[in-house]
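User: Hey, my collaborator sent me this sequence without any context and asked if I could get a structure. I don't really work with proteins. Can you help?
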Amino acid sequence: MTDRDPEPALRLPDDNGHEVSSLVPRRATWFELFGDLVFVAAIGQITHRVGTHPTPGSIAAAAGLFVPVWWAWVLYAVQANRADRDTVAHRLIAMAGLTGVVAMAVFAGAVGRTAGADAGFVFGYLCARAGVAALYAWDARGEQALRPVFRNFTRGSLIGAAGWLGGLFLLHGAARYGVWAAAMVFELLLPLIVGRSLTRVAHEADHLRERFGAFTIIVLGESVTGFTGGLTQARSLLSAGLTGIAAFGVIACLWWTYFNASGTRPGAHAALDHGGKLLHAYTFGHLPLQLGLALTGASIGIAVSNGGRHLNDTAAACILGGVAIFLAASALTRGAFLGFTEAVVLHRLITALLILALLPATPYLPVALVLTALAALLATSVILESPAHRRWQRAA
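Assistant: No problem. I've predicted the 3D structure and written it out in C-alpha cell form, which is a compact way to encode the shape of the chain:
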C-alpha cells in the first residue's frame, strides 16, 4: 500500500484485444482509506435511524438511504480502479466531492422528517456524483478510453439529477420518495444500459476485491459498535454476557464467511479485469450483501441490550433476515463465477432458509438463545464450506 502510484500501470492488449496491466496490480491508497472514513460516518447515521425500537418504517427508511450512500462509494471506488493515480489533483477533486458525502451523513438521520434534511441529503448526493464526474473529466484528457465513460456518466448524472431535484422541489411525501427511488433505479441501471461503451476500459481485479472487502469491513463495524453499545446498556450482567458472546459469534462467522471465500476463487476474479456481466454481478451482488449486514448491525445492539427478553418481530426480522440476505447474496454472487450448483453456494442458500425458519419462534425464545442458534447455524455453514475452499486452494 502506497501513498501514490508513481507511474500509471502500463496496459497492453491481450489475445482478445482487451487491455491488461503489465505491472503488479495496484493496492488501495491511503487516500482511498481516508475517503472510506467519510462513508463510515454516513453508514453509522443511517443504521442509527433504526433506533432502540425498530419499526417497519424505520427499517425501510434505513434501507432506502443506504442505497445512494453505497452507490456513491461504488462510483468513487470504480473510478479510482479505472484511472486514479493518487496525484494532488485527484485528491483535491475527490475531497471536493466527498464534502457531499459529509452532507449526506449530516442529514441522513432526519430525511423524511424535515424539508431541510431532504434538501441537504439530495444536494450532498449530487455533489458526490459531481466529484466523480470531475475526476473522469480530468482523467479523460489524456486517456481516450475514458472519454465514453465520462460522457455517459455525465449524461446519466444529469438525468438522475433531474429526478432528484424534481422530487425535491415539485413533490411531497410518498410521491417525492417514489420519484427519488425511480431516479436511483435509473442510475443503478445505467452501467448495464451503456455497458458496451465501457468494455475498452480495463479494471484491476485485485484492487476491486480489496475495495469491496474494505466496505464490507465498514458495514461489519456497525455490528461491532451495536453489540458493544448494547453491552453497556444491558441491565443484567449474566444475560448481557451470554447474549454478547452469541452476538460476537454471529459477527465473527459473518466475517469468516465473506473473507474466507473471497480469497479462494483462483483465477475467477481475473474476469473482472475486462468488465462485462461478471463485473456487474460482482458489483451489484454486493448491494444486498452489504445491505443485509447493515440491517443486522442496526438491530444487534438492541438484541444485546434486551438481554433475556424477547425481540419484537421487526428487530428479529432485521437480524435474521439481514443475515439470510447476506448469505443468499454472497451465494448467488459466488454462483455467477463458479456455477450455482457449487457446494458453497448450496450450503449458503440452505443455511439462509434455515435461519428464516427461526423467525416464527423468536417471539417465544430468549434473545440469547436466538443469537446462539443463529451463530450455530453460521458456524456449521463455515465448517461445511471448508473442504470446498481447500479444494480451490489446492487447485490454485
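In plain terms: The CA atoms of residues 31 and 91 lie 7 Å apart. You can pass these C-alpha cells on to your collaborator as they are.
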